[in-house]
Specification:
Blueprint: E1 2-7, E2 15-22, E3 26-31, E4 35-45, E5 52-54, E6 60-64, E7 69-73, E8 87-91, E9 95-99, E10 102-107, E11 111-115, E12 118-121, E13 125-131, E14 136-138, E15 141-153, E16 158-160, E17 164-176, E18 182-186, E19 190-192, E20 196-201, E21 207-211, E22 215-217
Parallel strand pairs: 1-3, 2-4, 3-5, 4-6, 4-7, 5-8, 6-9, 7-10, 8-11, 9-12, 10-13, 11-14, 12-15, 13-15, 14-16, 15-17, 16-18, 17-19, 17-20, 18-21, 19-22
């Protein structure tokens, strides 16, 4: 089923837990306050839009529960909407990924994971098995301080549209084979101060690392 949550609570940090399987479903949320979304063994596919659609500008802590495998996928085309729906896992607000479980995302139409704010990966294993556009697409900034990120996408591996990229820990592996694709790309400063990064690109005019401003490798 398609499930929509409307939370007007402004004083309580609510925990939502998703588990089970739906071959045709969606989880959408509107929230006036920050909240936690626990992925506790969920397998969710939505043929006409994002599998998870967060229509809130508040921060969402994504917790990949220990010992669980979670999978999200969208369809080839999205139903018409007046709201942004740019990826299989979409959020208007900030996304923090943590925990020790795993999340696998596939987008057949758009980005795999996208935030119109920032994305920060602190823990867990996030795998993009395929994306029609970017594997990870953020607006304000992308940070990675822990965890494992594996990406296969037709677009860029990780793109920050308007801000910076900071990688201080964790492991990133990205495979991109389209023309003019980038492994890591941002519109500001790109800093690598830790972690392990492996970028493989085969398309003409592709770049492993690209920044509009400075690139700092410490």
């Amino acid at each position: 089923a398609d499930v929509t949550v409307n939370s007007t609570s402004e004083n309580t940090e609510i925990n939502y837990s998703l588990k089970g399987t739906a071959s045709e479903g969606m989880f959408k949320i509107y929230s006036a306050s920050k909240f936690n979304l626990k992925l506790n063994g969920v397998n969710l596919t939505n043929s006409d839009g994002p599998a998870v659609n967060i229509q809130s500008k508040k921060k969402c802590n994504i917790i990949l529960e220990a010992g669980t495998s979670n999978m999200l996928a969208d369809g080839v085309t999205y139903a018409t909407s007046t709201e942004d729906q740019k990826s299989a896992f979409f959020s208007e607000g900030q996304l923090d990924f943590d925990g020790s479980g795993s999340l696998t995302v596939r987008s057949n139409s758009a980005h795999a994971i996208c935030s119109d704010d920032y994305i920060h990966i602190l823990g867990g294993t996030v795998t993009v098995t395929g994306a029609a556009k970017d594997g990870i697409h953020a607006n304000d900034y992308f940070k990675m301080s822990g965890g494992t990120l594996n990406i296969t996408s037709a677009g860029d591996g990780v793109e920050c549209e308007s801000g910076y990229i900071l990688i201080s820990g964790g492991s990133i592996t990205s495979l991109n084979n389209s023309v003019d694709s980038k492994g890591l790309v941002c519109d500001s400063t790109l800093t690598i101060s830790g972690g392990t990064i492996k970028l493989t690109l085969s398309g003409n005019q592709s770049k492993g690392i690209k920044a509009t401003q400075k690139i700092l490798i410490n």
